[in-house]
Amino acid sequence: MYHSPPVVDHLTVLSDATRVRVLAVLEGRELTVSELCDVVQLPQSTVSRHLKTLADGGWATSRRDGTRRLYTLPLEEVDLAAKRLWQVVREQVTSSATAAQDDRRLKQVLARRRRQSEAFFSSAAGQWDRLREELFGPTSHLRALAGLLEAGLVVGDLGCGTGKVSEWLGLFAGRIIAVDASKAMLQAARNHLAGRKHIELRHGSLEKLPIENGELDVALLMLVLHHLPEPKRVLAEAARTLKPGGRLLILDMLPHEREEYRQTMGHVWLGFSEKQMSPWLRSGGFKDVRWRALPPEPAAKGPSLFVATARRSSKV
């Protein structure tokens, strides 16, 4: 636990004008020793000596970032008396000509950081997507979007398959009910999601979900409706399991002519149009229907996809 030094020590530390300059530069940002030297125009040995005194007095902290170390003024950690003292000292220092020069040089240091980043992106713009996929994987940015879920939400992954979507959402959702009619798929999901106690796997059909009325805040139908003989009935059943105002998200295929999918992949429907889906949603108890066709992925070999969202009406 952090313990702020007594006020008498604060007065001793802040009695030196150079230390006060360093603190003024460090307030609200993190800088390396080299960057501090550029701002206050002092040798590295001098800056390092003052940083040690400030760190011993509780006025400066540092953290390692790769091979460099970043320093800052942890103003939120010092006690109230120290904060008041700093406000008085800062007002006196920041109005000086020296402080104005420090501020100009600080802006140059920060601009240099931006230029380094901009130079990289200028040279790598054409390769950035490939580089990002190599470094972090092709879906890293999409997985992060699960963080938009509010804490404590109950999510229904309807037609969960092997549990990949449940795994992503499980980082943030309070509870997930994952349902699938295939026992083989559920077993694969159990293996995949082992140890995640907040993800509950249930066996059952999507036409008669093993979920109580109004148990869900969010329901997902991810690439499953085209496998089902009665999509309209599934939508009404999803509405039953949602709380009033609960949200439904559908990802599925746009209409296509790949008839062979019926035989090779068990597809019952060759995609859905907005004209077809929107009336089903409204008659099933949903409102605020939104529909968007997704641009195809460059390497994708299947039909184009759409996303539809809707809210459960208060009357179902």
Share of helix, binned: 40-55%
Structural class: alpha/beta
Strands of the widest sheet, in order across it, are 5-4-3-6-7-9-8
User: Strand-and-helix sequence, N→C?
Assistant: HHHHEEHHHHEHEHEEHEHHEE
pLDDT < 50 stretches: none
Task: Round the Cα radius of gyration to an integer and report it.
Answer: 29 Å
Percentage of residues in strands: 15-25%
Q: Note the quaternary state here.
A: single chain
Number of strands: 9
Cα-to-Cα separation, first versus last residue: 54 Å
The whole-number mean of residue pLDDT values reads 87
Biggest sheet layout: 7 strands, mixed
Helix tally equals 13
Globally, the shape reads elongated
Task: Write the topology of this structure.
Elements: H1 7-13, H2 17-26, H3 33-40, H4 44-56, E1 61-65, E2 68-72, H5 80-94, H6 97-124, H7 128-136, H8 140-144, E3 154-158, H9 164-169, E4 175-180, H10 183-192, E5 199-203, E6 216-222, H11 231-241, E7 242-253, H12 261-264, H13 274-283, E8 286-293, E9 305-312
Parallel strand pairs: 3-4, 3-6, 4-5, 6-7
Antiparallel strand pairs: 1-2, 7-9, 8-9
